[in-house]
Design brief:
The chain has 92 residues and is mostly helical. The protein contains four helices and no strands.
Amino acid sequence: MGAFFRYAPIYLAAINVLAFLTYGWDKLSAKRSGAHRVPERTLFALALLGGSAGAVGGMFFFHHKTRHWYFRYGLPLILLSQLALAVWLKMR
């Protein structure tokens, strides 16, 4: 379990940067007509895999997907759940 906690910060930093940049890429693609878009399930998957802070940050920084209720409320809920899990793991 020691290796998990040693590499977890690196993984979390990488997945959050990836989520943030993916939201930016999708916003740019949304502005271009005919550009390839990132599927919504991919955007949610990045959040569920630990990139919820980057996803929430990207959503509000790029003003992307903020009108969709399932993003506006779902992503912060995922973030709060992951923070609660982290606190619980830390207290164990």
